[in-house]
Q: What sequence folds into this?
């Protein structure tokens, strides 16, 4: 069993890593623009795509998903944090992304970061809901609506597959945050 101090340190780590404004820095360094003043004003991959180009959005999305989301969860898991703490770690990473301490508590929506968290927490469910997302986008060309549908289905599929209650509640909390 991991002590509460270790859990607290991992939660704080997740927030501070999640808060790193990768989209902001990418736009600032590559194009000299503040993407808070363009497009949606959000600090995420979709606004990078809209503001400075799609080719720059892909690395931003992968960093948000894999470093901010998945890696923090893998650290929590490797340190032996139980499911409830893992959910809080994931929640902290997404909160960090959405309300970055580094740039006056402004951030992105957290979809990529939450996806990374959920990939570690409930990989089977994310693959199923990701397939629904991709199918919907291919059929309708409306990615925003299908992100909402897919994310909403994650906790439901977690419940359907009999995930522990703390995992299901963590999914609900993450999706609610988005």
A:
């Amino acid at each position: 069993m991991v002590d509460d101090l270790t859990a607290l340190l991992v939660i704080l780590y997740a927030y501070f890593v999640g808060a790193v404004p990768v989209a902001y820095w990418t736009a600032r360094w590559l194009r000299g623009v503040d993407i808070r003043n363009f497009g949606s004003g959000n600090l995420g991959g979709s606004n990078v795509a809209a503001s400075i180009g799609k080719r720059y959005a892909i690395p931003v999305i992968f960093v948000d998903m894999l470093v901010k989301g998945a890696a923090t969860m893998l650290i929590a898991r490797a340190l032996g944090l139980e499911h409830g703490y893992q959910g809080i770690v994931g929640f902290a990473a997404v909160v960090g992304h959405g309300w970055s301490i580094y740039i006056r508590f402004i951030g992105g929506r957290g979809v990529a970061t939450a996806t990374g968290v959920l990939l570690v927490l409930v990989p089977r469910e994310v693959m199923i809901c990701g397939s629904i997302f991709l199918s919907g986008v291919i059929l309708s060309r409306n990615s925003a609506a299908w992100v909402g549908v897919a994310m909403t289905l994650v906790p439901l599929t977690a419940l359907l597959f009999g995930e522990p209650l703390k995992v299901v509640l963590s999914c609900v909390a993450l999706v609610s945050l988005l």
Q: What stands out?
A: The chain has a mean pLDDT of 89. The two ends are 31 Å apart (CA to CA). DSSP finds nine helices and no strands in the chain. Residues 26 and 60 are 8 Å apart (CA to CA).
